[in-house]
TrEMBL record, chains A, B, C, D, E, F:
<feature type="domain" description="Carboxymuconolactone decarboxylase-like">
    <location>
        <begin position="42"/>
        <end position="89"/>
    </location>
</feature>
<dbReference type="InterPro" id="IPR003779">
    <property type="entry name" value="CMD-like"/>
</dbReference>
<dbReference type="InterPro" id="IPR010195">
    <property type="entry name" value="Uncharacterised_peroxidase-rel"/>
</dbReference>
<protein>
    <submittedName>
        <fullName>Alkylhydroperoxidase</fullName>
    </submittedName>
</protein>
<dbReference type="InterPro" id="IPR004675">
    <property type="entry name" value="AhpD_core"/>
</dbReference>
<dbReference type="Pfam" id="PF02627">
    <property type="entry name" value="CMD"/>
</dbReference>
<keyword id="KW-0575">Peroxidase</keyword>
<dbReference type="InterPro" id="IPR029032">
    <property type="entry name" value="AhpD-like"/>
</dbReference>
<keyword id="KW-0560">Oxidoreductase</keyword>
<dbReference type="GO" id="GO:0051920">
    <property type="term" value="F:peroxiredoxin activity"/>
</dbReference>
Amino acid sequence: MLDLPAADLDAETAAYFQKCMEKLGFIPNVLAAYAHDLAKLKAFAAMYNDLMLAPSGLSKLEREMIAVVVSSANRCYYCLAAHGAAVRQLSGDPVLGELMVMNYRAARLPARHAAMLDFAWKLTETPHAVVDADRAALTAAGFSDRDIWDIVAVTGFFNMSNRIGIGTDMRPNAEYHAQAR
Amino acid sequence: MLDLPAADLDAETAAYFQKCMEKLGFIPNVLAAYAHDLAKLKAFAAMYNDLMLAPSGLSKLEREMIAVVVSSANRCYYCLAAHGAAVRQLSGDPVLGELMVMNYRAARLPARHAAMLDFAWKLTETPHAVVDADRAALTAAGFSDRDIWDIVAVTGFFNMSNRIGIGTDMRPNAEYHAQAR
Amino acid sequence: MLDLPAADLDAETAAYFQKCMEKLGFIPNVLAAYAHDLAKLKAFAAMYNDLMLAPSGLSKLEREMIAVVVSSANRCYYCLAAHGAAVRQLSGDPVLGELMVMNYRAARLPARHAAMLDFAWKLTETPHAVVDADRAALTAAGFSDRDIWDIVAVTGFFNMSNRIGIGTDMRPNAEYHAQAR
Amino acid sequence: MLDLPAADLDAETAAYFQKCMEKLGFIPNVLAAYAHDLAKLKAFAAMYNDLMLAPSGLSKLEREMIAVVVSSANRCYYCLAAHGAAVRQLSGDPVLGELMVMNYRAARLPARHAAMLDFAWKLTETPHAVVDADRAALTAAGFSDRDIWDIVAVTGFFNMSNRIGIGTDMRPNAEYHAQAR
Amino acid sequence: MLDLPAADLDAETAAYFQKCMEKLGFIPNVLAAYAHDLAKLKAFAAMYNDLMLAPSGLSKLEREMIAVVVSSANRCYYCLAAHGAAVRQLSGDPVLGELMVMNYRAARLPARHAAMLDFAWKLTETPHAVVDADRAALTAAGFSDRDIWDIVAVTGFFNMSNRIGIGTDMRPNAEYHAQAR
Amino acid sequence: MLDLPAADLDAETAAYFQKCMEKLGFIPNVLAAYAHDLAKLKAFAAMYNDLMLAPSGLSKLEREMIAVVVSSANRCYYCLAAHGAAVRQLSGDPVLGELMVMNYRAARLPARHAAMLDFAWKLTETPHAVVDADRAALTAAGFSDRDIWDIVAVTGFFNMSNRIGIGTDMRPNAEYHAQAR
């Protein structure tokens, strides 16, 4: 694991970490890893919070499902552990979390979710081959252009964070494994 | 192309776009595309500017070389056009830009750059297979742990932005093609 | 799910299923699925029980680790659920089970296990490329020729059963998910 | 080649080998290789004989065609030699055997066989991507659910035995090469 | 770069090289590389000139588009540099040349060209999977059987020359990079 | 099969076909297929005859071994049938021909041939990844620069002709199958 010494936290970051402790009981290791450089940490957290928590035509659970399916394609241990837990928690369905980790095609998903995840998988595995017909399949499944943006953006984001997790050999907090089983 | 109506620019964004016009003569289409939602635009710009422009053990040219090689692996038209131009410009070597677009292995690179780009390629193409030995090869090529973080982070970022470019069918500004030929 | 009507159980099979109920509390769905044809069920069970339970230079846990890593490569939901649970149970280490499901390369394994799983992965993903050097790596890691046979045989077996699980859309028993968390 | 010393044959195995000598003129090397452990040999032979010789909606030739196409995908020398000979023999058409070895898509097959082999190929090469639509294509080609089970089971079996053949570097008996040319 | 000493040019070859100098201002390095053996040079030049310059239902630009797309799939620096320039020149559209190098799917091509390049890409990347339906798609796009021959032949030729370029580490003439920008 | 009407043969071509009849007893279908256009036929035959029959540091058998291994990678029925026969004939070893078709790695080849075929396979399957180290492995195995040229050229040629065989659905002459068994 790439272990860079943490910077001194400024007030904003200290408050953010404090909020993590209160809400989660721990500071996610991805934030601790980024804490070697506060500018990088803030940029990452701002993008993450906007993508995963801001209003969107996609529910928070849907965004977490994309997160796990992308991480499954890329086999990122950190993100599978952390976001697999989030799917279990948000859905109240532990089996759904396992299915997203193991193979989303084995889940008996409604057409909307199958289309969404088929797109995310293709954009992850063979981005060069994505064409208008792929976007049209999302439109046909009821997604607006803004929804498509959000599917693309979440897919893109986890293709980034999977590579940061794997590239730095990041370890998930132990707490994730037992959550919402 | 996914064409979402631009939001009203706030003062900060208007100033940023104004600075683009002054420095580049145009507003990069990726920023225009993000302008449908200022929170997303700002998060993207903050991360981009930190990664590509802030102090780092990697030169700006090295970061642009990674950007183009990742985009070559993923075959992202937008990023190859925009960052291919950046490599030509920063290096003063138009052929180097072409080599990064076409196949970096054909370039006769110093060992440092070959190691850096081999790592970026592997983390892009087969992230699941990256192991300690891959990081050790970077250390052996003279990169510090912080440099490795930056190689990982730039590689990750363009794996995101390539998918945003392709997923939304983004078009590069016409100006890039002729720059620094 | 391919749902073939069960045959009438003969005494031997009924006793086997009874033993499952006593030891596990349920009949594994793979056995129920095979029960449409007792000859097939018996052949499958005989091979499975010999491979996974008979004396071997590989511990039962090691055999289950191979089972999960092969199933991870092939993304078989049934086998990941069932054998992931077995790794958690036999090792007493729930995180090890998750690591085998998600990406065994992220586990900090002793050299013996890394060599064993690297071989199983390669024989699964690119069987055509396996050569003497791959067997030599197992020998160097301390495996005897008979151990290598067993690694090969377990890897082969799960390449079969993964395809039976996926090809018939088999569903794991609900009990596996919560076991040994 | 992994060469484990043969166990002392019990009466049942000796009789089985005797029957091979009478019917084939030789003992298939796969059986000789398994003879280091009679329990393993019997489990393998029981499964093989049930799958390839028991009554089924698939003819014996059809099962051998699947065997060769799976072995072609995995490039298993042993199985291609042995089962290529079986296709030549059962079909009385030496060119059909060559086509199954070389590329089944070049054969001008009836729709039933094309559907059967397309399914076997996909389940072999990209098992994770097999979905209901793939089974539906078999149903549309006239296969019953029990036939689909058999297609899946034969495909699975040769994905196992190919890996045992390659993993132990097994050599086909010289007799196969000239059979039924 | 594989650098074999040039043979003494015979009159025919000297005239051919002279013509190159007059028309292009330089001798393409591929011809210089082949000049170590005049029989090989003449066979290569004869095939190249027939394929790319002789009358055909495909325009010269269309043949060059195939050349670049095949070279993009194979990532051949020499051919991308040389034939990318040819597309720019013949089309008078520098951006079209870039699109063929970077990702032809991002170009908004007429259906005829999309069909032609989809076929060339598939025949390059997965030749074993090409079937009648792929040829039928060309027929549906208006190509005659003779046109299909020419698409196949140009695709085949650049799959050869890409491998000669890469295999011998051939360097493109510097002149190509700036042409027709 | 793409079936273009043959052109009227000129004297040179008629004599060439006559020679085929005398030496082989038939006209190879690839030549018949090319006979729709004599310029194309002559260019193909000239290149083929030079590559496969002219003096070289590689024996004719070695060149045919490369031909079959490349055709095995690409799964070209025509070339595997025709050149598999050539390997059987030139080597007097029918099993060697089968091994080249099925998986050359299963053959127990001298180091020279293993190095030659490993290079041909890599240049066929992942041309973009071939680097100086791959050429150095050939040098270390005793090949001169001119030999390397010939390995590259034969590999390239069959990457072309495989795609012409598959792309036009060419059928091998029936005679090949039984030759030299």
